[in-house]
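Human: If only I could read backbone structure tokens as easily as an amino acid sequence. Take your time, and here it is.
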Amino acid sequence: MKIKIILALALVSVRLQAQENSIKITLTPNNDKSVDFKYDKQTPGSYYVQVTLKNPSNASDGPVFDETIEGIHGKLFTLKPQDPQRPIGFSYTYRSAMGVYRPKLKTDFLYIFPYTKNTKFRALESGFVGSKYLGQATPADWKAYAFVTNKEDSIVACRKGLVTEVKDLYKTEGKAGLVSYTSQRNAIYIEHADGSIARYLGFKHGSIAVKPGQVVYPGTFLGMNSNITDVRRYSFSLMLMYIKRPFGETGEDGKELNVYSYIDPVFYDPKLGNIKLTSGTEYTADTNEGIYKKELSKKELKLFGLSK
């Protein structure tokens, strides 16, 4: 049977960029007439913050500042006066997005499949729902996959990372096969060491087993998949992305571009080796010691009975 799955992925740019409530910026004037821009962050992980000065006077820099913040509080930058005898005048706005601004990405990084060993599943390339439902253009590098099983199965992490956000708000019980599209999906966001972000979307309500701030490893149990979009099959989607461009950059049509770019990941397959997924193909999940050794410390490897 030919299957086409279109998942709730178009809103990712809105979801990840609407983070101002998680970040608070404060200003501290200094005796030398400079101004420190400081931040407090309520959520774990890295964030890209863009500060734009409005109607600046006597400012030596700007008007746009693009920064990556990591800790829960700190200094973004110091705005200095052109004339040290006069104060700086300005107002400002800011935007933020989950992730590292223009990270040094490992595009050929090897991932394990997101199911436990020996689980058989079918990989299906997911369409960009914004083009179907919202009239948006599909990003040139759009890539996301649904991982489909015939029964309820465990979802595991594909790579070591930090859990930055967990959303377990939407009930899935009693809704099997009732909708082909919904934005109400339970999700986990994980930041990797190279600044990329994985979004695992489509968990069974109440099954998520990790918390924000927790470090997960390849094979760490995350939760269970769900069958909300198909009564006969269980699935979830995986999307890998990173911040490629600043806020405000526009395309040829003059419209502002999404700050995120998408990754077509390379997976370890026990039979085929290192592969990129082919939509509609069935695969079998497995583990690989070499993947663990790429990012885990000696202490972490001991947890899995491995050594460098």
